[in-house]
Amino acid sequence: MAASTNQELVSKKYAKRSQMAEIWRNLKKNKGAIIGLVIVVLLVIMAIGAPLFLDYQKDIVSQNVSQRLQPPSFQHLFGTDHVGRDIFARVIWGARYSLPIGIVAVIVAVILGVTLGAVAGYYGGVVENVLMRFGDIFASIPHILLAIVVVSVLGQSTINLMIAVGVTSTPAFIRVSRAAVLTVRNQEYIEAARAIGMKDWQIILKHILPNALSPIVVQVTLRVGSAIISASSLCFLGLGIPAPAPEWGAMLSEGRKYIRDYSYMTLFPGLAIMITVLALNMLGDGLRDAMDPKMKR
Amino acid sequence: MHRYIIKRLLMLIPVLICVSFVIYFIMDLAPGDPALIIAGDQATDEMIEKVREDYGFNDPLIIRYANYMKGLLKGDMGSSYVSKKDVWETYCQRFPATAKLSVAAIIVSLVLSLILGVYSAVNQNTWKDNVSVVLALLGLSMPQFWLGLLLIIAFALNLGWFPSGGDLGGWRSLVLPAITIGTNNAALMTRTTRSSMLDVIRQDYLCTARAKGVSEKKVIMHHALRNALIPIITIAGVQFAYILGGAVLVETVFAWPGVGRLTVDSINMRDIPMVTGCVVITTMIVCVVQLLVDILYAYVDPRIKAQYTK
Fold it and tell me: Is the torsion defined by CA of A70, A72, A75, A80 positive or negative?
């Protein structure tokens, strides 16, 4: 009797633990990951909530020359720029550019990369060879150069920036998803699915991808950070979103002209990029450890 | 081993053909008429038409690309639309500056990452380890161009120790850009060094070495690090190739006259032969450096050499 209750307790304890719950339980133990998660959530709230407190025309882009180049003070926490715009407000509004650009760019890369990688891994042979060589060729062109070429062809706009950064992040996803698919391709349940007559695309979507998901999810979190850096780099080079949008990289590029006497103009937008990317990296590292306990050290 | 190297070099050919075609094709789609750039601002319609005729802009894309490749096979990469200079010569003029910067940067990152990575692996899970891990994470999250600007503010404008840009101050002008690129790469390499060291640090042969009475320093530096070196070399090689290929941002921040800047300027000017030439040479360098890294493995790890000769 006692044994059976014990068994019941144990099975009760583990029955409710889905994979998601298990990952969350592991993630909670990691202080860095939780700090990262909290910062990311705050940034998202800041990006969504900014229009409640700030008016794009009045607070973000309208020039006020009488207030130009004021150092940080209580009135202007981060100071004002060369045409008198409040840098604090612009940095906050900047999250509305950087976060969506990073996320959408990675979504583009996931759609392209995972499709190609899954097809390569599933079919193998000539298809795999051609796709992987294609990926290698793209990967051997330095990312930033490729992104610059793509933006200069498509023209400067937010959407094109997302596409350029997304395309350049694609090879990484091709490689990761191919490797992940390879690990499950020869399992018996895939053979079973084939035996009951499922179509290839159904097998890939329903059976292979869900089981190959965790390395892809980890890659996504880590790549959003580097996509944000790439996008702001392009804006810094003057190839991103046209002025006067308060994109962080573009603000740095403006601040650079006044670096000798008004260095605070370059300080805060860069700090914003760093905190965002740092939070995403901390969360990504934590997720990787939580999803794959073997990786944990 | 020789056969392996020759095979890899031969594989370069299709890669370069594809890269050149992709870039040529993409640049062709770019808005802006190169004939207008070549003919200049004051050109009449007839002059522009003549330029189109002379440069073959009226031919279909595939013919133009074929002509370009014909030249390339003879070792002629064409000449710039803007400066009219030979592409290969212009690249070669700019390359030494980039090479110098790349070597300095990779030395900075190797030194930083080996020290931090080994230190943090040896002190795993102590506060020393945590500090190094956080430092590496910070370095990884910092945009290169911002770090460059911060260094300029601190060491060029405030302290005046180093010049803020250009390549005229001898080794002093090299310091800040090399540290900027080096720190960023060091962050990535520190993480690799740490995890690679942790892989070997608990292995039995280290215990054996200690039992034999080998000093702890020698155990770590000689027995452990040497076996942990393969992933570190891989990352270092890839990073080195990328810096050689175009540290565009750092070259911009520090007004460094290297090939990264050259490429970006040519892209902005729609200078198709220059852009294609730069990207093709860069890709070639990236691939050759990667091959060299693969050959280097064989010297670090005899097991891999055995695989090559198979």
Answer: positive
B contacts of A266 (beta carbons < 8 Å): 146, 149-150, 153
Beta-carbon separation of B30 and A152 below 8 A? yes
DSSP A65: G
Of B15, B138, B248, the CB nearest to A145: B248
Q: Which residues of B196-232 are buried (b: 16+ CB within 10 A; e: fewer)?
A: bbbebbeeeebeebeeeeeeeeebbeebbbebbbeeb
CA–CA gap between residue B153 and residue B142 (Å, rounded): 16
Residues 6 or more apart in contact with residue A216 via CB below 8 angstroms: A110, A114, A173, A176, A177, A180
Rg (CA), chain A: 24
Q: Give the mean pLDDT of B140-163.
A: 87
Query: H helices then E strands: how many in chain B?
Result: 15, 0
Residue B86: strand pairing partners: B79
Please provide the DSSP assignment of B189-219 as one string: HHHHHHHHHHHHHT-HHHHHHHHTT--HHHI
**What's the CA gap between B185 and B105, in Å, rounded?**
8
Minimum Cα–Cα distance from A270: chain B residue? B146
What does the angle CA B250 – CA A103 – CA A203 come to, to the nearest 5 degrees?
125
Residues 6+ apart with CB under 8 A from B306: none
Q: Which of A15-24, A83-92, B231-240, B245-254 has the lowest mean pLDDT?
A: A15-24
Helices (H), A29-86: 31-53
pLDDT value of position A103:
92
| Nearest-neighbour CA in chain A from B268: distance (Å) | 7
CA separation, residue A264 to residues A88, A192, B69, B179, B215 (Å): 11, 63, 50, 22, 50
Mutate to test the interface with B, among A156, A229, A252, A260 (most CBs of B within 10 A): A229
Per-residue pLDDT tens over the stretch A75-93: 777 878 777 788 888 888 8
Compute the distance between CA of residue A36 and CA of residue A32 in angstroms, rounded to an integer. Answer: 6
Global model pTM greater than 0.90: no
pLDDT tens digit string along A110-138? 999 999 988 888 888 888 888 888 887 77
Domain ranges of chain A: 24-51+97-295
Q: pLDDT band at A297, cuts 50/70/90? A: very low
CB nearest to B249's CB, from A153, A236, A282: A236
- Identity at B301, one-letter amino acid code: D
- Interface probe with B: pick from A39, A91, A152, most Cβ of B within 10 Å: A152
Query: Does the domain formed by A24-51+97-295 have CATH 1.10.3720.10?
Result: yes
Residue located via tokens 């793209």: A138
C-beta atoms of A150 and B141 within 8 A: no
Whether B246 contacts B260, CB under 8 Å: yes
**Contact indicator for B162, B156 with CB cutoff of 8 Å:** yes
pLDDT of residue A13: 58
A13-22, A193-202, B4-13, B225-234: the lowest-pLDDT one: A13-22
Size of interface A-B (CB pairs under 8 A): 117
pLDDT in tens, B43-58: 788 888 888 887 777 7
Alpha carbons A7 and A21: distance in angstroms, whole number: 21
| Cross-chain CB nearest to A274 (options B141, B153, B263) | B141
